[in-house]
Amino acid sequence: MRTVSVLSTVFLLVCGAGCPSSGEDIDPASATSTTSTTDAVGTTTADGPDPTGSTVPAGDSGDVSTGELVDPDAVLHGLCAQQLACECVTPAYPDVEACVADRAAELERLQQAAEAAGLRFDPTCVNAWAYNVEFWGCRAEEEDAPAPPTCAGTCAFVHGDQGSGEACVAHEDGSDCAQGLRCGYAGTCVVACGGQAGDPCELSTNCGDGLYCRAEDGVCAGATAEGEACEPDSGQCAGDLYCHGETGVCTALAGLGGACGGSTYCAEGTGCSASQQVCVAPAGVNESCEDAYVCVPEAVCLTDENGSSCWARRAAGESCAPSAALCAEGSTCQDEVCVADEPWVCG
């Protein structure tokens, strides 16, 4: 058996179920072109399946790499350059070339792991690496970020051919489930994300928009509308609805002035007044939050000997005494000083 360098096999087009198995010889020189094209997250945009399960249109994920063929050197250099552009106290790599070498070595390891397990290796998943680095950029792990498009940036380097609902075996680097599926806790292949109605699932995050994972049969099902019966903590209610613990129906969060308390909750950005039992606006900086314990985003409700009031959040470099909660988003209290969090790529 001959092992071809992963940086050569990445040049092959996405071929889905037609890819040669890990035990077959691959000759990049004899690879023939098809009408398929691959976008920056590895999505086949013409003939052939989508190896990432992504619904992101070609080009929406940036200029990391586009076109019919994937240039692994360009992709790795691009993502490493972007990673090292973030300000890190201790950079993950000394320079771009060291980053590229490490990532290439990891690809080689994944390819060998797939061969050892008799599974398939999908080198086009390198695009998911690039997508994630570009999408998350230099944000810190704790920093709020927009939700990525469904399934974008997900791809299994090591996978098999087992179909949805079929028995599977999980491996350290993947499973024998087909691309777009993962081996569930029950030992069967379930959809990884973006599942359609009827697809096996374990979590509602495995299912597409407007669907949830129905616990009784473990499949993606349509979310329940307002006013319809539901099970508490099932996650079955659509959108921002929740299952009311007393009425057992999907209920909208109460707005400003709406009744609240018990199993009736207020909309985000408001609080339930303990004295009035209605949803009220958040208190401003230095105002009392005694009644609803909710403050404007730039403040936090703290209690001391004078009662509960909204304290202004502190920026990096400022004292976080008397509470670590005072540090603004993107910073953490260390030795009573707010310190800016490092970008997630610095780890």
State the distance separating the first and last CA atoms. Answer: 37 Å
Rg calculated over all Cα atoms: 25 Å
- Mean pLDDT over the full residue set: 80
Report the strand count. Answer: 16
Q: Which strand order do you get reading across the main beta sheet?
A: 1-2
Give start-end ranges of low-pLDDT stretches.
1-69
What percentage of the residues does DSSP assign to strands (E)? Answer: 5-15%
- Anisotropy-based shape: flat
Main beta sheet strand tally, sense and closure: 2 strands, antiparallel
List SSEs in N-to-C order: HHHEHEEEEEEEEEEEEEEE
The domain tally reads 3
Range of helix content: 10-25%
Total DSSP helices:
4
**Category by helix and strand content:** alpha+beta
How would you characterize the overall build of this protein?
The protein is an alpha+beta fold. It folds into three domains: 6-157, no CATH class; 253-312, no CATH class; 313-347, no CATH class. The protein is built from four helices and 16 strands. It has helices spanning 6-9, 72-84, 96-117, 126-136; strands at residues 120-121, 158-159, 170-171, 174-175, 181-183, 189-191, 211-214, 219-222, 242-243, 250-251, 271-272, 279-280, 299-304, 307-312, 331-334, 337-340. A hairpin with a 2-residue loop joins strand 15 and strand 16. The longest helix has 22 residues, at 96-117.
Brief description of this entry?
The chain is an alpha+beta fold.
